[in-house]
Design goal:
315 residues, alpha+beta, 4-stranded antiparallel sheet, two-stranded antiparallel ribbon, 6 strands, 41% helix, disordered C terminus, NAP_family
């Protein structure tokens, strides 16, 4: 720098000044994106809450809601005789039906749903997504394990505050015979990685993620004895396990079977972006598999793709 003339020094200094200006624009851009994401999440939640009210039968749809349907003309066609058949409350089996259609049409890699799973999922009452703020209780460190300081620490804390995660909740009937609890959940970072789970509390002997097997155990100097062990099996409810628990069972897992972490990586984002958002469309598709009676819904909606998630890499 000492060999530079004044004009060249000014030009070089301007490079940093312009970057500072760009940095401020970028910060403002990401702030606005976060505000838009929050606004979108709030508006979406309002719609999904209203949807669940209609599903449960706690309220009836308004004329305005019905008239927005592209297939409103079919609503009053071929009505059953009211003296013969009375309408049930809400929309029976809405979520189990939507889940079945989603599994049929979505590219869900590695997710196996057993008959034992469906015996439980047929009691599904609600699937919802909520915002979740991951706990910021981890000591921030660099690649060498050294604690972050100064600007690096400030940047990390800013990113943690901006990293709004989400949770996915599955709510079941109170009378679900296999469960001691009504609700299970996945708590995820904004990237979709599962951070925590509210795991199912199974009635003894009703856990569909394992099967009991008998094997012989030989001990030195003793006669082999038979012991009963729990062997992991393919199940939808493996999603609600933490990867650490799965790692302990690696020696019992089939080579073709995805680990819990891999399964969550493939499925969690699809639950959030497809099943929850499009559940009504999936249910309607189940009523008319050929798509002819309800406004060609498959044709209209199959090309839909979720928006890309905005993110910011560390400089």
């Amino acid at each position: 720098p000492s060999a530079m003339g004044l004009s060249l020094r000014r030009r070089v200094a301007a490079m940093e000044g312009l970057y500072v200006e760009y940095d401020a624009v970028e910060e403002d851009h990401h702030r606005k994106l976060q505000e838009l994401e929050a606004e979108f999440a709030a508006a979406s939640q309002k719609i999904f809450t209203r949807r669940q009210q209609i599903i449960e039968g706690s309220t009836e749809p308004t004329d305005e809601e019905v008239n927005k349907s592209s297939s409103v003309g079919d609503v009053t066609k071929d009505l059953p005789d009211p003296t013969v058949a009375a309408d049930p409350q809400g929309i029976p089996q809405f979520w189990p039906t939507a889940l079945r259609v989603w599994l049929k049409h979505s590219d869900v890699e590695g997710l196996e749903v057993s008959a034992a799973d469906w015996a439980i999922l047929d009691h599904l009452r609600e699937v919802r997504v909520e915002t979740w703020q991951p706990p910021n209780d981890v000591i921030a460190s660099d690649a060498d394990g050294e604690p972050l300081e100064g600007d690096d620490l400030d940047f990390h804390e800013t990113q943690m505050e901006a990293d709004v995660g989400f949770s996915i909740h599955f709510v079941f009937d109170e009378a679900t015979p296999q469960l001691e609890c009504r609700e299970i959940a996945l708590y995820c970072y904004g990237t979709g990685e599962v951070a925590e789970v509210a795991a199912p509390d199974w009635v003894e002997g009703q856990d569909p993620t394992v099967k009991m097997a008998t094997k012989k155990v030989k001990r030195k100097g003793r006669t082999a004895e038979k012991v009963v062990v729990a062997k992991p099996v393919e199940s939808f409810f493996r999603l609600f396990q933490l990867p650490d628990a799965d790692d302990e069972a690696d020696d019992e897992r089939d080579e073709a079977e995805l680990s819990v972490g891999e399964l969550q990586e493939h499925v969690v984002a699809l639950l959030r972006e497809e099943l929850v958002t499009r559940a009504g469309i999936y249910y309607i598709q189940s009523l008319s598999p050929d798509g002819e009676d309800w406004g060609q819904l498959e044709e209209d909606y199959d090309d839909w793709e979720p928006p890309a998630q905005a993110g910011r890499s560390r400089r």
